[in-house]
């Protein structure tokens, strides 16, 4: 899949090929349709506050997302492939797919 990643603090974001994330039993795989540019992504990418807001590099930014459920973990109830969803993940929405724990329905 394609994703936008940060390889080094303060550097430009790069458009890369990365593996589709594997989901855990309690997660769903979302095909991302939209995301947002959040100021906190810019702060984290700069590295200026990495003692307070640590991230591991390489890093895929993106907190907010909307998309379609592609796959569900075996322990997930209330969501099915094809469901439209939105939420915040904390990271990783600048990608084609995102693995997240769903909110209980």
Task: Write up what this structure looks like.
The chain contains one helix and six strands. It has a single domain, classed as Medium-chain alcohol dehydrogenases, catalytic domain (Quinone Oxidoreductase, Chain A, domain 1, Alpha-Beta Complex), CATH 3.90.180. It has one helix at 39-46, and strands at 2-6, 13-17, 28-35, 64-72, 84-88, 97-100. By secondary structure, the chain is mainly β. A four-stranded antiparallel beta sheet has the order 5-4-3-6, with no helix packed on it. The protein has a two-stranded antiparallel ribbon with strand order 1-2.
Brief summary of the model shown:
This protein has 105 residues and is mainly β. The chain is built from 1 helix and 6 strands; from the N terminus they run E-E-E-H-E-E-E. It has a single domain (2-100), classed as Quinone Oxidoreductase, Chain A, domain 1 (Alpha-Beta Complex).
Main sheet: strands, sense, barrel: 4 strands, antiparallel
Count of all domains: 1
Task: Give me the secondary-structure category.
Answer: mainly beta
What is the CATH superfamily label? Answer: Medium-chain alcohol dehydrogenases, catalytic domain
Order of helices and strands: EEEHEEE
Quote the beta fraction.
25-35%
Oligomer: single chain
- CATH uppermost class: Alpha Beta
Output the strand order for the largest sheet: 5-4-3-6
Which shape, going by the Cα principal axes?
elongated
Computed over alpha carbons, the radius of gyration is 14 Å
The assigned CATH architecture is Alpha-Beta Complex
Number of helices, where a helix is a run of at least 4 consecutive DSSP H or I residues: 1
Helix content: under 10%
Average pLDDT across residues? 94
CATH-defined topology: Quinone Oxidoreductase, Chain A, domain 1
List segments where confidence is low: pLDDT < 50 over at least 5 consecutive residues.
none
Give the tally of β-strands. 6
Distance between the termini: 29 Å
């Amino acid at each position: 899949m394609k994703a936008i990643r940060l390889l080094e603090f303060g550097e430009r974001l790069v458009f890369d090929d990365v593996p589709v994330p594997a989901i855990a039993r309690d997660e769903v795989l979302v095909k991302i349709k939209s995301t947002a540019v959040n100021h906190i992504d810019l702060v984290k990418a700069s590295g200026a506050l990495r003692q307070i807001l640590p991230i591991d590099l390489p890093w895929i930014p993106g907190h907010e997302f909307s998309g379609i459920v592609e796959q569900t973990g075996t322990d997930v109830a209330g969501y099915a492939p094809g469901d439209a969803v939105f939420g915040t993940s904390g990271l990783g929405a600048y990608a084609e797919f995102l693995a997240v724990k769903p909110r209980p329905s």
